[in-house]
Design brief:
By secondary structure, this protein is an all-alpha fold.
Length: about 60
């Protein structure tokens, strides 16, 4: 069951990347909309990862 969920997520990610490339080349309106959602989700994940890494201690032990 978990394999199907992961395959579904992988298909969405690959489809989003294809739409980003297609939209850059002047694809249809729906591809540009999917590309905008994909890029927005990527930016949110990037910010989440950056904030999360800043919250963790560095372990310097000074």
């Amino acid at each position: 069951m978990i394999t199907l969920v992961l395959l579904g997520i992988l298909a969405l990610v690959v489809g989003g990347c294809v739409c980003v490339v297609w939209a850059e080349r002047g694809g249809p309106r729906w591809a540009r909309a999917v590309a905008a959602v994909t890029l927005g989700a990527g930016e949110l994940l990037r910010r989440y990862g950056k904030n999360r890494s800043q919250d963790q201690p560095t372990g310097g032990g000074d």
